[in-house]
Amino acid sequence: MSAPSITDPIEVRGLRVRNRIWIAPMCQYSVMAYDGVPTAWHRVHYGALASGGTGMLVVEATAIAPEGRITRQDTGLWNDEQRDAWRPIVDFAHQAGAAIGVQLSHAGAKAGTFAGFGRDGDRRGSVPIDEGGWPTVSASDEAILGLAAPRALATSELDGIVAAFVAAAQRAVEAGFDVVEVHGAHGYLLHQFLSPLTNRRVDGYGGDLAGRSRLLLDVVRAIRAELPALPVLVRLSATDWTDGGLDEQQAAQVAAWALEAGADFVDASSGGVVLAEIPVGPGYQVHLAERIAAEGVPVSAVGLIETAEQANAVLRGGVAAVRVGRAALRDPNLPIRWAGELGVDVDWHPQQYRRAY
Ligand SMILES: Cc1cc2nc3c(=O)[nH]c(=O)nc-3n(C[C@H](O)[C@H](O)[C@H](O)COP(=O)(O)O)c2cc1C
């Protein structure tokens, strides 16, 4: 069978997605009222991306609880006001022909930091409690990345974390989102459980890979039980790029378990729990997605995939879709442009712009 093209449609749990050029979640840190409610910026930003031809746009890491925000300027889905503010963004994406998802997130020990927009973010780290920060939680009580030390979550608190993910997923469905993505990557709470570098627990949520995966899999299973028809993506950091950390073999196993638990798709990112030497370059994470694809798990690749030819080559390696981040910030119309470069005639542009094509 020949490999699909990035311009080919794909189905995810009954959801038809018009192509395989997807927008990766990207924090905007633009909720200046600190209430988690998306703003005019989110409407314009996501509107532009949805109009640019993507098959699936997944909006930024959106907190399932106030204390799960990376910064005070994060979006949330822990209350109905937030849900209602997402609705016009979702409706607009649908009018533009894009599927739209939300990345559900709890930052754990990486919560409560200063928001920064530069390449390295803001280096001031944790916001002091008396300046509006809050105590953080994690798998263990060791500080990471120079941030304030978290409190290890008690076993009895973990059902509450799972329930908060499910409640946010429920609100996502009420807002009209087609997909939810469980954020299991980049050193945030679920990754803090997955990684042996940050999980020193001695209860059933630590120890071997099965124990460390348990919270993530509980979240996936609980969302699946509550929302049987909802397509669920899981984003993993498929390596910690550090000896003794999570590696690509373990990540492929977790991806297979996530599929069994009811996920439909995995995205292979990397890093975030410790500082590591990451060999950043074109397609530097593609091999991680290929390793997961080898388990028979539908998977997307991400990370410096910046040309149409390169993206199509990625699909030839067994990966089902590509996700783009920064290149789509530079040009929200990148999917339409890539189709043109491949000589594929598409109708993904808004009809209002027809005279331009
Ligand atoms: C501004 C910005 C914000 C990001 N925020 C998130 C996020 O909210 N959740 C997430 O999983 N990844 C986030 N990422 C990582 C991207 O989703 C993506 O994996 C990364 O940028 C690599 O892809 P690229 O080379 O195509 O940009 C962010 C990246 C950027 C540039």
TrEMBL record:
The keyword ATP-binding does not apply. Keywords: Flavoprotein, FMN, NADP, Oxidoreductase. GO terms for molecular function: FMN binding; NADP binding; NADPH dehydrogenase activity. Residues 8-338 form the NADH:flavin oxidoreductase/NADH oxidase N-terminal domain. This is 2,4-dienoyl-CoA reductase-like NADH-dependent reductase (Old Yellow Enzyme family). Its cofactor is FMN. Gene3D superfamilies: Aldolase class I. It comes from the Bacteria.
